């Protein structure tokens, strides 16, 4: 028989068990909810990461800013499932923000009026103006509630309710703005804006790269124009100086003493040096602008051709030049031959008086491409000056008087190699002297 006491115990126990079960069920549901929420968050983050990756890839590949902006707009619209995206850029000379005319429009007809309102010249809408002034992203939760916004009316008429914009940044300086719109009111999403900020930085890099390239092209063109003018305008008076000095020597030579003839020789030498400088200046300018005639060419042929041009110097200095197995290169044969002519010419020229130059040309094809070394037993270059020698008119102090040159050979050579997508640098040679190394992309 069950006593009432134990009956109470049993019901109490059952009640506790029920409560415990209920609590466990609750905890399990909560855990499941949390897991689902985390999974969704993770999924969202994954999506955002993919968005960032896609924009980064498009930015890296872009050779101009417009396609990079276009790709970013399309990717962001696809990610958000938003129907409208648009880009503005700051004009670097006037600092004014203006529409690029680059859009993603899910429905061209429907958003035509909104587009026209956004592209009005001299009238930049308030959302991008605000972003460019503050350098920070901005969010419009509901156009209906912010009628003060310039495009609020036309946006609502097109069925657009919410939007956000973020700056394209170079450092902290806004270089443009991207804006996006949707048809439903949307609350600001700080995590999303963070991703957009990173996209803004990515695009800023493309703008920066583009502008640097534009400036380089302009300065190359300026330099070439200058070099042409200089070569024409200087060549003429130079020819006349050379002509009159020659005349002086021919007609008055027998009446001049040795000293006067020595002065004439200096004048002739000066004219020749100046002519070489003009020629080199022109070569330097052209190395940055003329189209490259890309061909596959064995480096051995280029070296042999350069050595033919240097025959007199080799004989005069008693130089010994060893040429090993050399790889095949891809590039403009005329320009690459000029590089070898400069490197070999220097290797023969810059030896101490009385020391016969010994030059070794060797090469390998590494995974990244062919690499060639020109090593000499010359006077060497202080590692602290290893970069300086590649600058224009760089002639190391104390040498200018002993060794003839314009100080442009290495600057020309580096310009040519870099335009081919390669590198040229100098290292000290183990046994004294220098090694000049160059790499080129795979042929
Ligand atoms: P240039 O030979 O006309 O003076 P380059 O541009 O070819 O001009 O070289 C710049 C300077 O670098 C030279 O004046 C010289 O001081 C130094 N240099 C170049 N090549 C060598 C070398 N192989 N050994 C030692 N010094 C060198």
Explain how this protein is built:
This protein has 443 residues and is α+β, with helices and mostly antiparallel strands. It is built from 11 helices and 12 strands. It has helices spanning 4-61, 65-80, 112-118, 126-134, 152-157, 190-252, 258-289, 299-309, 311-317, 333-349, 409-419, and strands at residues 84-90, 97-105, 138-140, 162-170, 173-182, 295-298, 320-323, 328-331, 358-366, 369-376, 423-428, 434-439. The strands form 3 sheets. Strands 2-1-5-4-3 form a 5-stranded antiparallel beta sheet. The protein has a 5-stranded mixed beta sheet with strand order 7-9-10-12-11. The longest helix is centred in the middle third of the chain and has 63 residues, at 190-252. The chain is elongated. It binds adenosine-5'-diphosphate. The site of adenosine-5'-diphosphate has 22 residues, from helix 10 and helix 11.
Notable characteristics:
11 helices; binds adenosine-5'-diphosphate; five-stranded mixed β-sheet; five-stranded antiparallel β-sheet; alpha+beta; 443 residues
Quick overview:
The protein has 11 helices and 12 strands.
Write the layout of secondary structure elements.
Layout: H1 4-61, H2 65-80, E1 84-90, E2 97-105, H3 112-118, H4 126-134, E3 138-140, H5 152-157, E4 162-170, E5 173-182, H6 190-252, H7 258-289, E6 295-298, H8 299-309, H9 311-317, E7 320-323, E8 328-331, H10 333-349, E9 358-366, E10 369-376, H11 409-419, E11 423-428, E12 434-439
Parallel strand pairs: 7-9
Antiparallel strand pairs: 1-2, 1-5, 3-4, 4-5, 6-8, 9-10, 10-12, 11-12
Helix pairs in contact: 1-2, 1-6, 2-6, 6-7, 7-11, 8-10, 10-11
Bound molecules: adenosine-5'-diphosphate (ADP).
Residues 342, 346-347, 350, 376, 378-381, 389, 394-396, 399, 405-411, 434 line the site of adenosine-5'-diphosphate.
